[in-house]
Structure prediction request, 912 residues.
Amino acid sequence: MDAATKSEASGLHSALRYKFIALVGNEYVRAATAADAVARAQPKLVIEPGTERELAEILRLSNEAGLAVIPRGGGTKLGWGNSPARADLILSTVRMTEIIEHAWADLTVTVEAGCTIQRLQETLGQHGQRLALDPLWPEKATVGGVLSTNDSGALRLRFGALRDLIIGVTIALPDGTLASSGGKVVKNVAGYDLPKLVTGAFGTLGVITRAVFRLHPLPLNSHFFSISTVNAEETQKLVLAVQDSKLAHAFLQSHFSDEKPPASDILFEGTEAGLAAQETQLRVLAAPASVCAASNSSWTARQELWAFSDPASAAIAKISILPTNMARTMKLVAHSAKAQQLRWKALWYATGLGWLRLEGKPGALCAALQALRGELQGQDGSLVAFHRPSKMPAFDAWGTASDALPLMKAVKQQLDPKNTLNAGRFVGGV
Amino acid sequence: MEVRILDEFRTIVGGRGLISSPEELHTYECDGLTNFRVMPRAVLLPNSTQQVQAVVRLCHRERIPFVARGSGTGLSGGALPVENGIVISLARMNGILEVDFPNARVVVEPGVINLDVTGRVAPHEYFYAPDPSSQSICSIGGNVAENSGGAHCLKYGFTTTHVLGLEVVLPDGSLVHLGGKTLDTPGYDLAGVFVGSEGTLGVATKIILRIVKRPECIQTLLAAFPSTNEAGAAVSDIIAAGMLPAAIEMMDDLAIQAAEAAVHANYPNCGGLLLVELDGPVAEVEALMTHVNEICRSNGASEIRKAQSDAERALVWKGRKAAFAAMGRISPNYIVQDGVIPRTALPQVMSEIARLSQETGLRVANVFHAGDGNLHPLVLYDRRIAGQEETAELLSSNILELCIAAGGSITGEHGVGEDKKKMMSKMFAEPDLVTMQRVRCAFDPLQLSNPTKIFPTPRLCGEKPGEYVPRPLESAGIAERY
Ligand SMILES: Cc1cc2nc3c(=O)[nH]c(=O)nc-3n(C[C@H](O)[C@H](O)[C@H](O)COP(=O)(O)OP(=O)(O)OC[C@H]3O[C@@H](n4cnc5c(N)ncnc54)[C@H](O)[C@@H]3O)c2cc1C
Prediction:
C-alpha cells in the first residue's frame, strides 16, 4: 500500500494528499504508525519537507484544510506538555539539517531546525567553538525541538538560556508566511524580538525552520569538583556562598535524593593559572564540607534522571524557585514523597531551576505533584510536569497560568487563528 | 484637548501631575533626537501603577494615543509625542522597591535612573550590568523599551538578559505580569517580546532586574594603533584566541581628539585606539592580559598601557562615554548613527565610510563597541552652511545601507523609533514586518501605545495580509493553490 492509499484509509482527503506528494515527493509522505503517536493522539500522516518553503506550503495547505499539525524534530520531547487536542499530521524537520553558515570569525552560526545538537556542536568544535548549552539527548535532539521546549541545562548559569543565545529565527506560520526576525549579528534591536517569542512556545505559534545563534569559544581547560554536604540546608548555604563569591564558575548543580546526602558539582573553565587559583578559593569557601575532583559524568546528570526504569510509575517535573528556597523545597519534596510513599531524586541548578523525579503509584504521584505545585506557586515558583504515567489522574502539565493568559491567547490568535499547531498542548489550553 | 478630558486626567494624577501649558510642554516636544518635534496635548506624571492604569483606560475610552517617556535621552525619536496624543512621563515613579542580594534580584519602578541601581547595590559588591553611556540620566523603563546596551554588554548581555519580569499596563488599561522573579514562568516569553518594543506594547510600571556580583579584578588596557584596521585585526585575534573580554571599544583619531578636548582622558594620539577590559579572577585576568598584550603588539600597537588605578580606569571610561557629547568640541553639529556589522566586515565597511566621507567632504568620527560590531559613526557638519545638513543625513543613512549590505543591522541599541522606520523595509521583508505587527495587534489592537513608530507602513489590526503572491513552488507548477 502506498502512502496515498494508506492515508485515504485513515480519512485524509485524497486531493490534498496528492498535493502534499507533488510538493515533497512520494517517499516523504507516509502514513503514520503507532510509533508516531503523540501522547494519546494518533496522527494520520507524516510529512518530511526538504526545504523551508516546502514546509511553509504544507503548513498552509493543512491549515486551509483544517488539519491539526504537530511539528516534530528528533521526537525526544514530543511527550512534553499536555496531550494534543487533535493530531492529523506530523510535520517533520528530519530532512532540514543543513548548517547554513558557521561564521566562526564572527562567532555566529545559521542552522536549519532539523540539525541535531550533537552534529552542530561537532561542526562548531572544528573551529574551537560551541553553542554554550547542554540540552538533553544532544545526539537526537534538534535545534528546533530544543528551542521550542526551551531546554537548557547546567551551563545556563554562566551563558544564559536559549533566549540569550538565539539572535535570529525564521518561522513558518499556518497561513504559509515565512517570517524572519532578529538577524545575523549579536547586537541588534531592529523590530520585535520574535526569536524569544518562539523559544519555549512549544511549536504553538509557528514552525521554526532556521535559527541563528551566538557562539562561545570552547574552554581552554576545565575542572570539575564535587562537594558533599550533610543536608539540604548546608547545600543551600554552600550554593549561596559560591554565588555570592568572586568565583567565576561555569556551572553549579546539586543532587538530592531519598538515598544519599546531597552533593554539588561545580565546573570551572579557563586558563590553568585561573583554575588553580579558583580551586584554592573553593576549598576555603566550602570548608568544612569536603571537596574532591569529580568526573565528566556531571554533564549527564539530568539525562540520568530521565533514565527511569518504568515509565508507568515515574513522573518528572521541572521546578522553578528562587535560589534561596532550595532547602525549603527539598524538604517539601521529601515530605510529600514520604506521605505518598514515593521514591525521589532531584537535580538543582544554582539558577533556581530544578528537575525532580518521583516514582511510585500513579495516584500517589499525582497527589504529590499537586501538593508541591500548590506550595511552589505560593512562593513565586512553578512546577511543570514533563513526564506523567499514562495512568496518572488528570494533571495539567503547566499549572495555573498568570494574569497574562488572555494576552498569550491573543498572540496565539494572531499567529495561528485556526489553532492548527499543537492544539491544546500549552499553558491554559493554548 | 477638550477641557472635560483634561479635567478627568487632572482628577487622576492631581494638579501637580498634569502639564498642559504650552511653555511647559515644550520640554516634551522631542527626545535626544532633536530634529523631530511634535507638541503633545498634555503630559501626565502619574506616581503609581493605578494612576498609569487610570490614565491609559481614559486614553483607551477616548481613543487618545499616548507615548511613555522616561528621561527623554532616546536617540531615535522613540519618546517623540504623536499628533493629538499625550505623553505619560514615568519620572515620578522612581522608587527602588526591593533589593534581594541572596537571589541577586532588584525590583524597580520604571523611572529609576540606570546608575542608581548600581549605586544602591554597590556596597554589597553587586552591579547592574547594562551600562549605556547615558547611564547617569536614562531610566530603566527607557532601557527596557530600547533593550539598551553598553560597553560591558559584550560579556554580560543587553538589557533583555537582565530583565526577569515586568509589570505592564496594557494599552486597554489592564495590568499583566510578564516573566517573574523565578526563571521560565510557564507560557510565552512575553517579557522577552516587550523588552525592545520601544513603548509600542504598553507601559512598564515595575521591572524585576538581575544584578551581578562584581568580579574579583578588573583590568583595562589601552592600545594605540596606526589605524582602525590594525586595531580591528587585533580585536579579531583576541576573539579567535577564545577570550570573551568584558568590553572591547574602539575610537578613531577624530573621536580621540574630541574626547581629549572634552574630558582630558589622556588617550594616546593615534589612528585607532582600543580599550580592552578583562574581568574575573585575578590569576585568570593576568594570564589573559599577557596574551592580549602580545596580540596588540603583533598587530602593530605602538603604545600599550594599563590603567593603573581605579581613578585612571574611571577616566578612561569617562572619555569613551563622553564621546558623543564631545563632538560638540570639534564640530557645530553632528549626527549620531548606530549600526551593526559582523565584526569581520569592519575593515571593508570602514574604508567605505572613509570613501563616503571623502566624496561628501564631511568628516566622520568613529566610536565602536568593537567586540560586537556595533558602530557609532558620528557625521560632523555645520547647519549654517546651506545643504550640509541634508548631505549629512544622506551620508548617515548611506552608512546604514552599508551595514545592511554587510549582513548587519540598522540599529544595535538606539532603536528604530521615528528615525529609522523607513530603513526597516530595507532590513526586513514585508512578511517579517507583517508578522511583527500581528504580535503588536495582540497587545494593542487599537494602536494607541506609541503608534507610528518602528513600522514603515502601519497596518490596521484585523487587516488581512496583502494580495496573494504565488509562492515559487506554485509558479513552477509544483504546487497549486488549494
Ligand atoms: C549621550 C547619550 C549616550 C547614549 N548612549 C547609549 C548607549 O551607550 N547605549 C544605548 O543603548 N543607548 C544609549 N543612548 C540612548 C538612550 O539613552 C537609551 O535609549 C535609553 O535607554 C533611553 O532611556 P530614557 O529613559 O531616556 O527613555 P526615553 O528616551 O524617554 O524613551 C525611550 C523609549 O522608551 C519608551 N519608554 C520609556 N519608558 C517606558 C516605560 N516605562 N514603558 C514603556 N515604554 C517606555 C518611550 O516611549 C520611548 O520609545 C544614549 C543617549 C545619549 C543622549
